[in-house]
């Protein structure tokens, strides 16, 4: 969550929840792209690098 908020801001973090209307978040990748403009797969790769840089 720290990386997501630092990269996209708190407002976009909130939008990820408010714009996701499907049960089970089955369309989260589409909501993520609409809110952030980035692909979810790319975010996961960047988040992985961030976590490793922190020694986690």
Word description of this protein:
By secondary structure, the protein is mostly helical. It has one domain (2-53). Helices cover 70% and strands 0% of the residues. The protein contains 4 helices and no strands. It has helices at residues 2-8, 10-18, 28-36, 40-53. The relative contact order is 0.15.
Q: Can you summarize this structure?
A:
The chain has 56 residues and is an all-alpha fold. The protein contains four helices and no strands. Helix 1 (2-8) crosses helix 2.
Secondary-structure map:
Elements: H1 2-8, H2 10-18, H3 28-36, H4 40-53
Helix pairs in contact: 1-2
User: What structural class do you assign from the helix and strand content?
Assistant: mainly alpha
Strand content: under 5%
Total count of strands: 0
Number of domains: 1
Write the element-wise H/E pattern from the N-terminal end onward.
Answer: HHHH
Helix tally? 4
Largest sheet: none
**Ranges with pLDDT <50 over ≥5 residues?**
none
Write down the overall geometry.
Answer: globular
State mean pLDDT (0 to 100 scale).
92
Integer-rounded radius of gyration? 12 Å
The share of residues in helices is: 55-70%
Distance between the termini: 14 Å
């Amino acid at each position: 969550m720290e990386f997501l908020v630092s990269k996209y801001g708190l407002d976009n973090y909130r939008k990820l929840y408010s714009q996701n209307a499907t049960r089970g978040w089955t369309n989260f990748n589409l909501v993520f792209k609409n809110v952030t403009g980035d692909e979810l797969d790319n975010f996961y790769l960047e988040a992985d690098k961030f976590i490793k840089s922190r020694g986690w």
